[in-house]
Write a structure and sequence with these properties.
With about 270 residues, the protein is α/β, with parallel strands linked by helices. It is built from seven helices and 15 strands.
Length: about 270
C-alpha cells in the first residue's frame, strides 16, 4: 500500500482480518442476524475471504494460484477482486453481484461498496492504473471509479456515478462525470464513522432545470405572456395537454420530507 496515500497496513493475522470483515456486516446491514448466516449466505463476505487468502500468496510472488482463487470467487459470487489489490480492514461488499476491483486498486479501512461497482483502469500500461479509496468511503450501486484517482476520506459516491478525477475528503459526488454536490457530514454515522445515508443527495441537473424554469416564469411576467402559446396572456392559453406538469409547476414543499428539503437547501 502506498504510504503517501493510505496508512501503513496493520499486521493483523488473517483470521482476525476476516473476523473484522464479518463483524462489520452487522454495523452496516440491518438484515444481518447471526454470524452463521453471514458466513454462509453473504457473497460479499465469501469474496473478501477468498481475497484475504489469495492476497498473501500474490505478495509472495505467486501468480497462478491466487489468480485461480480469485477466479473461483468470481464464479461463486459474481465478484471479481484481483489478488494484487490492496484492501484495508472492515471491508464490506453489500449484495455484491457485478463488483470489479482491479489489480492496483487501493482501499482503506471501513469502506463499503454496493453491487455493480467498478474500480477500473483507464490505461493498458503497467503500474498504478486503478483508483485509491481512503478510509470510510461509501460507493453506491453501479458507480464506476476509473483511473489512478484518489477518493478522499469519508466520500460518498452516488449510484451510477462515474468518477474520473480526485475527490476531496468528506464530499458527496453524483453524475456523469461525477461532480461534488454536498460537503455536509452525516449527524449519525455508524460506530466506525461510516455514513450510509448515500440516498439523501441532491440532484444537480434537476436543480439547474428548476432554476431555469423559475427564470422563464420571471421573463414571462416581464413581457406579459402566459402559458406556452405565443402571445398568450390568459390562463386558457396554457398547454391543453401536459405530460410534465410535475416538472413545470413549482413543487409542493409540504410533500417533501424535511430531511431532503434541508439537504437540497444546503447543497
Amino acid at each position: 500500500m502506498t504510504e503517501a496515500v493510505l496508512p501503513r497496513a496493520d499486521r493483523s493475522s488473517l483470521w482476525r482480518l476476516i473476523g473484522e470483515d464479518v463483524h462489520s456486516v452487522f454495523d452496516r446491514d440491518p438484515a444481518a442476524r447471526t454470524r452463521f448466516e453471514v458466513y454462509t449466505t453473504y457473497p460479499g463476505v465469501h469474496a473478501v475471504i477468498l481475497y484475504r487468502l489469495a492476497h498473501p500468496l500474490w505478495r509472495r510472488g505467486w501468480r497462478w494460484l491466487p489468480r485461480f482463487i480469485s477466479y473461483i470467487a468470481r464464479i461463486w459470487t459474481s465478484i471479481d477482486i484481483h489478488p494484487g489489490a490492496t484492501i484495508g480492514r472492515r471491508f464490506f461488499i453489500d449484495h455484491g453481484a457485478g463488483v470489479v476491483i482491479g489489480e492496483t486498486a487501493e482501499i482503506g479501512d471501513n469502506v463499503t461498496l454496493y453491487h455493480g461497482v467498478t474500480l477500473g483502469g483507464t490505461s493498458w500500461r503497467r503500474g498504478k492504473r486503478h483508483p485509491t479509496l481512503r478510509n470510510g468511503c461509501v460507493v453506491g450501486a453501479g458507480a464506476k471509479i476509473l483511473g489512478p484517482v484518489t477518493v478522499g476520506t469519508g466520500v460518498k459516491v452516488g449510484a451510477n456515478s462515474v468518477v474520473v478525477g480526485n475527490v476531496p475528503d468528506g464530499r458527496t459526488v453524483v453524475g456523469i462525470p461525477a461532480t461534488v454536490v454536498k460537503t455536509r457530514r452525516s449527524a449519525s454515522p455508524n460506530p466506525h464513522g461510516v455514513d450510509l445515508d448515500h440516498h439523501l443527495i441532491p440532484d444537480p441537473v434537476a436543480g439547474a432545470i428548476s432554476c431555469l424554469l423559475d427564470r422563464i416564469r420571471v421573463l414571462e411576467q416581464e413581457v406579459g405572456t402566459h402559458g406556452c402559446l405565443p402571445g398568450g396572456t390568459d390562463p386558457e392559453n396554457e398547454c391543453r395537454e401536459c405530460d410534465a406538469k410535475q416538472v413545470c409547476e413549482p413543487p409542493d414543499q409540504s410533500a417533501v420530507p424535511a430531511a431532503e428539503r434541508a439537504i437540497a437547501e444546503s447543497a
